[in-house]
From TrEMBL:
GO molecular function list: DNA binding
Domain (HTH cro/C1-type): residue spans on this chain: 8-62
Source species of the chain: Daejeonella rubra
Lineage top rank: taxon: Bacteria
The protein's name in its UniProt record: Helix-turn-helix domain-containing protein
Length: 111
């Protein structure tokens, strides 16, 4: 069941949902959902159906979900977000430079 739990966690991450979000939708506690993801708790068929509907999949799709495909999608998303973060950091550095330049102009103007 650990593999299924990893698949569920990967799907949850792809949707950017927290454990709390999923637990609420399943109407279970966060610790109970955490035990599903970690494979501590075996999932009965009705819970499996509930989880598959939540992720808009059939039970068969959920059980046969390819970890590598999901991981590649997850990695692509992480790479994209990392690039956006780098771009924002560069924008921030440029703005900081402009503030320093304006401050120095203001100081020179006051003298």
């Amino acid at each position: 069941m650990k593999t299924l739990g990893k698949k569920i966690r990967l799907l949850r991450h792809q949707k950017s949902w927290s454990q709390e979000d999923v637990a609420k939708q399943l109407e279970i506690s966060i610790p109970a959902f955490s035990k599903i993801e970690t494979g501590i708790t075996d999932i009965n068929l009705s819970r499996l159906e509930q989880i598959s509907k939540l992720f808009e999949m059939t039970v068969v799709q959920l059980l046969t979900f390819n970890d590598k495909e999901g991981q590649e999608s997850y990695n692509t998303e992480v790479d994209s977000l990392t690039l956006k973060l780098h771009e924002r950091e560069m924008e921030l550095i440029d703005l900081q430079k402009k503030i320093i330049e304006l401050y120095e102009e203001l100081r020179a103007f006051r003298k």
